[in-house]
Design brief:
InterPro entries: TMEM64, VTT_dom. It comes from Thlaspi arvense (Field penny-cress). It is a multi-pass membrane protein. With about 200 residues, the protein is an all-alpha fold. The protein has one domain (about 1-180). Helix content is about 65%, strand content about 0%. The chain has 9 helices and no strands. Helix 5 runs parallel beside helix 7 (about 90-125), helix 5 (about 60-70) packs across helix 8 (about 130-165) and helix 7 (about 90-125) runs antiparallel to helix 8. The protein starts with a helix and ends with a helix. Mean pLDDT is about 75; it is low at about 170-195.
């Protein structure tokens, strides 16, 4: 999709359109997982044991973790949208972090799409490029790849550090089915039970 956006619309329009589209798609999946698809998502948690550490870290810094997860392919992108829906991260933070975190890969792929369009125009004889134009295309493509790799490495290191900081707080897990949901409040509809120990005989005397 990102390559196609760059190929059809060029870099500025393709980047904006793909960025907005990807964010809307991620937000839609998040809302589905948080509402009617919640049971499906919870049934899939056991298939992604590494997500437990992510869920714990999100309780401390949701925006940061979601941003880093978008930069680092720790989990499948589409499934990540649903898995994050059962975490305590607010919807607004999720959307903003996802939008910012997806920008680097979106830009790189859209730029690659524009490069493919240029190459296609040359091979079909629709345009002729000078050596300077070729140098700019190659340099721009190489630069985008290098920057993407650097950003991914930095994000991976930051994500690993953030997850490692939460390895000692496994006790905050609320339940075996949903380790990422905050403890539910008290049920006010239930009667209040107070246990009183029987006094000792000596105390009675």
């Amino acid at each position: 999709m990102h390559l196609g956006g760059g190929y059809l619309f060029g870099l500025p329009v393709g980047f904006v359109a793909d960025s907005i589209g990807a964010t809307i798609g991620a937000a839609s999946a998040f809302l589905l997982g948080r509402t009617i698809g919640r049971s499906f998502v919870t049934s899939k948690l056991k298939d992604y044991p590494q997500f437990q550490a992510v869920a714990i870290a999100i309780r401390r810094s949701g925006f940061k973790i979601v941003l880093l997860l978008r930069l680092v392919p720790l989990l499948p992108f589409n499934m990540l949208n649903y898995l994050l829906s059962v975490t305590p991260v607010p919807f607004g933070e999720y959307v903003l972090a996802s939008w910012l975190g997806m920008m680097p890969i979106t830009f790189a792929l859209v730029y690659a799409g524009t490069t493919l369009k240029d190459l296609s125009d040359v091979t079909h004889g629709w345009h002729e490029f000078s050596k300077t134009r070729w140098a700019l295309i190659v340099t721009g493509f190489a630069t985008s790849v290098v920057l993407l790799v650097c950003v991914t490495r930095v994000a991976k290191s930051a994500l690993e550090k953030a997850l490692a900081e939460n390895e000692d707080i496994d006790s905050i897990i609320a339940s075996p089915e949903l380790p990422i949901v905050a403890n539910p409040g008290a049920d006010l509809q239930q009667p209040l039970m107070i246990k009183i120990d029987r006094p000792e005989d000596d105390h009675e005397k």
